Amino acid sequence: MNTRLTYIDLFAGAGGLSEGFIKAGFNPVAHVEMDEAACFTLKTRTAYHYLKKKKKFDEYVKYLKGDIDRASLYSLIPEDEMSSVINLALSDENNKEIFKKIDARLQNRYVDLIIGGPPCQAYSLVGRARCDNGMKDDPRNHLYLQYSKFLKKYKPKMFVFENVLGLRSADGGGYFEKMNAEFNKVGYEVKDFLLNASDFGVLQNRKRIILLGYRKDLNITKPEIKSSFIKQFKVQSIFQDLPKLQAGEGKDKGDQYASRTNKYLNTSYIRNGIKVLTQHVSRPHTAQDKEIYRIAIKLMQDGDRLNYINLPERLKTHNNRHSFFDRFKVVNSTATAAQTVVAHIAKDGHYYIHPDIKQNRSISIREAARLQSFPDDFYFEGVVESKNRTAAFKQIGNAVPPILAFEIAQKLKNVL
After folding, report:
1. What is the pTM of this model?
2. 120 classed as catalytic
3. Of residues 120, 158, 179, 343, which has the active-site annotation?
4. Of 87-91, 243-247, 273-277, 326-330, which range is least confident?
5. Are 36 and 89 spatial neighbours (Cβ–Cβ below 8 Å)?
6. Alpha carbon distance 246, 248 (integer Å)
7. What CATH code is carried by the domain that includes residue 215?
8. Which of 47, 138, 170, 227 is the most exposed place for a label (fewest CB within 10 A)?
C-alpha cells in the first residue's frame, strides 16, 4: 500500500470495476457494498489475488474444483486482507462505521482515487418507463450525495463515477446538473465521457457515462479516454470452447473445457491459463419458453427478429402486448457485439437466448460473464455456497466490464 496507487471502491458490486484497476496496478483499500452475495464474491476474489501473489494459486484452484469449501478457502487468507470488504450500505446511519473501518486499514495513508457508481435503476430509461412517476421518488436518485461525503473526507486526487446513459436525462437533466454542482462544491472539477464497452474489446454493446473528477487545487492533466481497438472478433468466440448444454444442465465447479482456447479468449485474458471451468450452468426453461426460443432462433437465422405480438396466441401469456415487443431476443453469434447484459437476466433469460438451436436455452452464468469480459477464474458467489445462480446473474448484469475498467485505469495511472 506504500508503493502502489490506492483506491476505495464504493457501490462495489461484484468488483468488475475494481478488477480492472487491480490489473492496472492499483491497490484496493476497501470495497464497500451492501449486497451480501456480492460481498462474498469480493472476498473470494480477494482470496484469488492474495494466493496468486503468494504463489499459492493451487489452493484457489482447489476451490474451483470443489475440493475445498468456501470457509476453508477464506481460512487461508489473513483477516487484514479480508477486512477490505465492507458489507454496509452507504448512508448517514452507516457512514461513521464505514469511515472507521477504512481508517483502520489506511493508518493515516493517503487515498489516491475513489471509484464506483451507485445503483443505476433510478436513472435508467427502462426503469423510468416502467415506473408510474418515472422513479422521481426513488431514494437511489440521491446516492451521489453519499459518494460526495467520501470525497469530502478522503480528498482523493481523482474519482471515477460510472452510470447509465439515462443519468443525463433523468429529471430533465436535473440530477446530472445537481451531481456536477455537488462534486464542484466539495472541490472537484468534472469531465464526463460517453463510452461503449464494445469499443474497448468487450463483445457487448454497453454504453455508459463515466464522470472523471479532478481535485481543483492540483494541477492534474485531464486525459482523453479513446479507443484504438479494431473490432475483429465475433460473439461466437465466447461459445466455441464451452461444453454444449441443455436447459437446466451444467456444473458449478470442477468442469472441463470442450476444446482449446481461441485468439479472442487469449487476447482478452478471459482464458488466462486456468484449466478448470466453473459456473457453466444454464437455468431450466418451460416447454413453452423453449418453443418460443426455437422460433426466435429460426427467425434470427433468416435475418429477422421475433416480435412478441406475432407469436401464436397460445404462446402469448403476457398481458402487456403494447410495449417491450422484443422481450425474447437471441444473442447474435456472428455480430461483433451482443446486446447489453443487464441485471434483469437474473429474473429470466428470454433476452439472452443461446444462438445454437440444438441447445435451446438461455446463456449460462459463464457465458454471461464472458460477455462482460470477466476472466474464467472469476467466481460469483451466493449467500449460500453453491446456490448462487440468481445472485451470480444479478452481479454480472450490474457490473462494469473489467476490460473497460482496465482501459480507464491505465489512463488514470499515467496521469497520477
Report:
1. 0.93
2. yes
3. 120
4. 326-330
5. no
6. 6
7. 3.40.50.150
8. 227
